[in-house]
Amino acid sequence: MEETKITLSEKEMPDRWYNIIPDLARPLDPPLNPATGKPVGPEDLAPIFPMALIKQEVSQERWIEIPEEVREIYTLWRPTPLYRARKLERVLDTPARIYYKYEGVSPPGSHKPNTAVAQAYYNKAEGVKRLTTETGAGQWGSALAFACRLFDLECTVYMVRVSYGQKPYRRIMMESWGAEVFPSPTDETEAGRQILQTDPQSPGSLGIAISEAIEDAAKHEDTKYSLGSVLNHVLLHQTIVGLETKAQMEKAGDYPDLLVGCVGGGSNFAGFAFPFLMDRLQGGRKALRAIAVEPTACPTLTKGIYTYDFGDTARTTPLLKMYTLGSDFVPAPIHAGGLRYHGDAPLLCLLYHEGLMEAVAYPQNPIFEAALLFARCEGILPAPEAAHAIKAVVDEAIRCREGGERKVIAFNLSGHGHFDLGAYEAYLAGKLQDFEYPEAKVQESLARLPKW
């Protein structure tokens, strides 16, 4: 019988995270203090992040040790399995070999606890009592609620209002782990009140929710802010995904020609792809391709501009050099709530700008069509975010069929869709709306960017 699932033992789990920064051909543009225009220092970040994470954010070390206590918790679900999608290959009649890394086996059901556990650990070690955060679809909020419970920390989550309504069971999951969850924008913060005054029916956005969570953290001495994507230390923690995948691919006697992952802020794609892109950056695997997949409703890489922008709507964060649609852009209420972010991780954006990766965008209905095809072949119902990656994989596999190319395609199945059945119900009933690229709306948002 042909092998379908490639596994690692707990003893084979990586004991270090990979930091891509030392392997970059050009340095990453630093975050800037918006008041001075100068690079931010540790003192600028200390009010909202613990010093250990600030040091990881700027580290020039290629390998950073995973604390033993974090590795011990990881073993609740790690190492995660790598699957060969043989049934999908047969249905597509493709000569391509398709592999997927399945992160949905974690307790919260996604890749997010890889960094949530690490962030909770470092905050606890520095005496923090409570963490605040934002969440879109609820995957990140669930992960942080889970991690905070393990480290006996309080957790406050500002959940994007449209997702709060679409995914009530994500909220219940967070509350079951003891988190306090608010639909954002709220009247709990000045940032939220300003948005509601302008638009009482605002569906919310990740930028708005970030503003509320940061404001909350900054006002309380015993509280820090925790981010689920975008920043360097978050992407660092996620590289355990790609490092495991490399070891599993070696066991399978294969190596990918093409890497695929969905992108909202960039953590699951970066965590999966960076350990492979290390080979290319260090002089090998020059033909390796990597494709980031995003929604046409929020096409940050494919339609945004590369410039300094705020990470949140209230403009309280440092300025980040990234592809952006404008920090006040509010995307359409698609079901892939984790992909509704106006910007992307600066590290990811630099690689895209340098031509080391590609990007494509899809509307809602095609990605759910691909998700159902995958579920009916492989049995796993994917999260709408991960379904974007599946759509790109299907398209690439069909190109391999048409061109007779025996490529190896690997993608990150970043989470399951068990809390997204409302979206599947709408798709099956033919009631799922597609939101095309909002050209005028984005241009208005970009026009409001300060001229740095």
CATH fold label of the domain at 68-109 and 238-447: Rossmann fold
How confident overall, as mean pLDDT?
94
The major pleated sheet works out as:
7 strands, mixed
- Kindly provide the name of the CATH class of the domain at 68-109 and 238-447: Alpha Beta
Tally the beta strands. 15
Estimate the strand proportion.
15-25%
Distance between the termini: 60 Å
Gyration radius from CA atoms, angstroms: 20 Å
Helix content: 40-55%
Widest sheet, order of strands? 1-4-5-15-10-11-14
Number of helical segments with 4 or more residues: 18
Q: Label the structural class.
A: alpha/beta
Unreliable stretches, pLDDT < 50, 5 or more residues? none
Secondary-structure topology with pairs:
Layout: E1 5-6, E2 16-18, H1 42-45, H2 51-58, E3 63-65, H3 68-74, E4 82-84, H4 86-92, E5 97-102, H5 113-125, E6 130-135, H6 139-150, E7 154-160, H7 161-166, H8 168-176, E8 180-184, H9 190-198, H10 206-218, E9 223-225, H11 232-252, E10 258-262, H12 267-281, E11 289-295, H13 300-303, E12 305-310, E13 319-324, H14 346-353, E14 358-362, H15 364-378, H16 384-403, E15 408-413, H17 421-428, H18 439-447
Parallel strand pairs: 5-15, 6-7, 6-9, 7-8, 10-11, 10-15, 11-14
Antiparallel strand pairs: 1-4, 2-3, 4-5, 12-13
